């Protein structure tokens, strides 16, 4: 099965690992200082010698080397090469905006916000009218009946996964969500035939950012379901079924369709399966 590998995906992986270290470490500890320094330098790290980074963080050069290996690199040189791509994402790509919208935001911010709110409103109404309610109920029944359910995603999709996880727990339904790439890869490696895999991806970026995990999920024997608002996504062949939360891909406001859909899913689950 062919899965596209995104260079951006590797950068996301590095950035995720650095933020994970910041979250899990105490302020001022060695790993916290180094992760903070790499994030602050961004793509400029490529021009910083190991000695300079070590001195700025009050650590030794071998400590910097060990930190590089902790991030998955063979050496600090390899870390510097990957760091060249940190912070190089354009505003258009980062915010899923087109050039006219970006120009409007720059020159007439109030008009941009009014237009953006109108887009969100129209998109939510359209999404609500396009949901397949019977299919969603069947999906929720499958989720309810399956003992082990694993959720996969990246970026804002992990926020949606957390909404599912925390809300379903109130109704004694425990689902498993990995919040970093290593954890998600481990979940994919441990999928069994009786499990249910749910991939949440607003635009389909998960398939390109985490291709090894996506392929492992697709090759597993478990039921594999995608939740997305991107009705034009070509890689739906990788899944046994797809829950579309809209019948069109809204590049600028698709996240709101996803949030509406996920909020509906947990509320519908509550009224159907409340103990």
User: Roughly how much helix do the residues carry, as a percent range?
Assistant: 55-70%
Number of DSSP helical runs = 14
- Spans of at least 5 consecutive residues whose pLDDT stays below 50 are 1-8
CATH topology of the largest domain: Rossmann fold
Q: Compute the number of structural domains.
A: 2
Plain-language structure description:
This protein has 14 helices and 5 strands. With 275 residues, the chain is an alpha/beta fold. Strands 2-1-3-4-5 form a 5-stranded parallel sheet, sandwiched between helices. Strand 1 (149-152), helix 10 and strand 2 (176-177) form a beta-alpha-beta unit. Helix 3 (50-56) packs across helix 4, helix 9 crosses helix 14 and helix 10 (156-169) packs parallel to helix 14 (254-273). The chain is globular. The chain starts with 6 loop residues before the first helix and ends with a helix. Residues 1-8 have low confidence and may be disordered.
Secondary structure topology:
Blueprint (H helix, E strand, L loop, with lengths): L6 H18 L5 H12 L8 H7 L4 H10 L5 H8 L7 H4 L4 H9 L1 H22 L2 H13 L3 E4 L3 H14 L6 E2 L3 H9 L6 E5 L4 H5 L1 H9 L3 E6 L12 E4 L9 H20 L2
Parallel strand pairs: 1-2, 1-3, 3-4, 4-5
Quick recap of the structure?
By secondary structure, the protein is α/β, with parallel strands linked by helices.
What tags apply to this protein structure?
single chain; 275 residues; alpha/beta; Rossmann fold; 14 helices; globular; disordered N terminus; SIS_dom; carbohydrate derivative binding; MurR/RpiR family transcriptional regulator; DNA binding
């Amino acid at each position: 099965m062919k899965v596209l590998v995104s260079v951006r995906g590797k950068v996301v992986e590095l950035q995720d690992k650095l933020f994970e270290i910041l979250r899990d470490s105490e302020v001022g500890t060695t790993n916290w200082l180094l992760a903070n320094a790499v994030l602050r330098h961004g793509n400029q790290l490529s021009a910083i010698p190991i000695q300079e980074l070590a001195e700025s963080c009050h650590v030794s050069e071998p400590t910097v080397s060990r930190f590089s290996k902790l991030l998955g690199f063979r050496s600090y040189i390899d870390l510097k090469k990957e760091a060249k791509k940190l912070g190089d994402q354009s505003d258009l790509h980062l915010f899923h905006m087109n050039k006219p919208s970006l120009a409007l935001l720059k020159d007439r911010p109030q008009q941009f916000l009014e237009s953006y709110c109108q887009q969100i409103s129209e998109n939510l109404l359209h999404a609500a009218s396009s949901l397949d309610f019977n299919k969603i109920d069947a999906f929720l029944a499958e989720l309810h009946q399956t003992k082990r359910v694993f959720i996969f995603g990246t970026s804002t999709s992990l926020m949606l996964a957390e909404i599912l996880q925390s809300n379903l727990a109130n109704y004694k339904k425990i689902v498993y969500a990995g919040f970093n790439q290593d954890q998600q890869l481990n979940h994919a490696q441990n999928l069994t035939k009786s499990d249910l895999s749910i991939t949440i991806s607003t635009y389909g970026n998960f398939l390109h950012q985490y291709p090894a995990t996506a392929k492992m999920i697709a090759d597993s024997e478990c039921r594999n379901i995608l939740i997305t608002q991107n009705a034009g996504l070509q890689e739906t062949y990788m899944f046994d079924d797809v829950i579309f939360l809209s019948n069109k891909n809204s590049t600028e406001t698709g996240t709101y369709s996803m949030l509406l859909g996920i909020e509906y899913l947990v509320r519908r689950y509550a009224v159907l399966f409340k103990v």
